[in-house]
Structures are given as C-alpha cells and as structure tokens.
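Reviewers of the previous submission asked for a worked example of the structure-prediction workflow described in the proposal, so we include one complete record here. The input consisted solely of the amino acid sequence. No template or homolog information was supplied to the procedure at any stage.
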Amino acid sequence: MPDRNSPLQKAAEKILKAEGTPALFMDKRVIKQKYQEFSRQFGGAKIYYALKANPHPGIVELLKELGCSFEISSQGELELLLQLGVSPQKIISSNPVKDQAFIGSAYSSGIDSFAFDSYTEVEKLARFAPGSKVYARLAVSNEGSEWPLSRKFGVEIEEAVELLGQARKKGLKPYGIAFHVGSQCTKATTWGKAIEKSQAVWESAADKGIGLKLLNIGGGFPIEYTKPVPSISDIAQVIRDSLAKAFPKDIELILAPGRALVGEAGTLVARVIAKAARATEKWLYLDVGVFNGLMESVGGIKYPMTARKGSQTSQWVLAGPSCDSFDVISTEAELPELEVGDRVYIMSAGAYTTAYASQFDGFPIPKIHFIE
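From that input alone, the workflow returned the following structure tokens.
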C-alpha cells in the first residue's frame, strides 16, 4: 500500500484526505484469495470464519457470498450474522464456555452444533439445546504459537471420552472432537500432534459405543508479520498426511481460520502526533496505540511498518496517544526520521485490531474502509 502510484494507495489517499487517521484499509481481493486458498488446500472440509478476528459487516458479506460459514461465541455475534442474512445452518459455536441465554437463543435460531469441555456445559446444553450435536474440546500442545490458548480450554483424553458419554446420557448427540493449537502457530507439526491425540479420543469413544463423525481442527493458521511462517500449503500437507494415518476417509473435517483470512488484507494508517528524546531512546507517538487498535503488540505480535520518507532507518520506541504508560507498541521499531504529521503504515493489521479496540482515554477506534 505505501506505493504511492498503486491503485490501492490512490484510493486510500482520497479517503485519508477526507477523513484522516487512524484508518484501517481492508483489501477485499486479499480476503477472497485467502478463502480460495483454504478451499483448495482442504478440499471437502467446511470452512468457518472465526468472527472474533474482525466482525465488520463488510467482511461477513464478502465471505457469505464466497460460501463461507461462521464460528461464533456470543449473542452479539449471533445477532450480527442473523441480521446480515447468514443461515443458522452455516453457524457453529466452538466456545466451550457459553452463557445459557446465548445457548437458548442460538438453539431457537436453528443452530445445533456446540463445543463443550466440562460437565457443567453438558448440563447447560442438555437443558437449553436438547438433542444438539456436540463436540468435546481437547487440550493439545500450543507449541510454536505466539498466542497460546492451552490453559483456559480443553480436557485430556480420558475426560474427553467421559464427557462424550455423559453428553449421550443427557440426550445430546456426541458428534466429534475439537482442538485449537493456539493463535499464530508457526509450527506445522503441532497440528499433526493434535490430530494424533484426537485419534486416541476417537478410538476410545468407539470402544464405548460412541461413534464420532466430526473433527474440528480450529484455527491458529499464521500470517506473515516480520518473520517467515509456514505457508497454508505446508500446514495443509501435514494435516492431510496426519488425517490419512489416523482417521477414516469419510470424516467430517471443519476448520475455523480467522487471522489467516483477514490479517494480511489490512493496512492500518496512523499519523505521528509527537516525538521526543528520552535518555538514549528516540520516541514516536502515533494516533493509534495499544488500546485503540494494536492490543496484540502487548502479546508479542510485531507488525511490519513503513513510512514514505527516505530509506535510512533507525530504532524508535513507538507509543500510542493515551496517557497510560502501558500504551507502548514497540521498543524496537525501525523507521526513518519522521516529523509530526507524517504517516506510518502498519501492515498485516486486518485481524484483532479494531476487534480488540476500545475508546479508552477518548481516542477513536480506526474506521474500516474497503478497497476492491
């Protein structure tokens, strides 16, 4: 996008002149390409977009047109999809911890597939979504993930099998297994290990007369920030090989990418609002920061950044606009010498930016603009 002569840049320039920064530009062509790549690599699998990554209606409309399904966790996400005309048959809820009112609302809307990982959740599902298809969330290694999810959710093999049995006793349909290798997982082998562990649950459940049909391999597919990552093709090959060894050919496979569908489509444009020299450090302050758009920088995500001003760079501490000292985006940003008013372009910013953002301290959440 920083190429001032590109069609994308020219379109963005008009918007920036009219509305200013911060602004998040989403390239619909990239989202479409990513969805098509997943469809090619995973053949007959069903793709569910993890809505939490970026729930903008424009993204939902585009993916809906492409034939994508959706994964949700809350009443708010459910209402958004239903308002946009998404069929309940194309919605699942893979959050193992759900409010009972949400369960009832989802069920009455026609959604009948839910994840679970506790006896309490079995009780809630049996009461508020009777007869639904349920899949047990298995705890798996999050090795290689920049944003691990391994402590909050999931159970071990033996408990997963017991939970599936309990679900059957309560009138639910024990249908499958789910796992998540963690967000931004950079080791393809982690999926292989998770599939191997899932096989143990599948076979143990079969020994107890519980015939499962579904494997939900979740998301976690990485995008490129500042370091190389395995391609979707590389990860898909590991998954296909592992499935061929461990599961029957007629298994129902679903996956739920979020970041991988929208992350690289987004460029966040910010403006320098201040600069300072503090001891041995040079500081730049932007009109977007941790609280109103770049929360994942706190967890270790390092966004590629550039500015249209010279080729020689030096190291800067990059901070957001709020009065909170926690609002530091990077302590090692490589940027040219910039002045107040200059723009900084933050790439691969389409996921978990505006979705996480708040208006803390009164600073605005970046408005999303779409580029065709």
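Residues 7-25+264-371 form a domain with the Lyase, Ornithine Decarboxylase; Chain A, domain 1 fold (CATH 2.40.37.10). We consider this example representative of the routine output the project will generate in years two and three.
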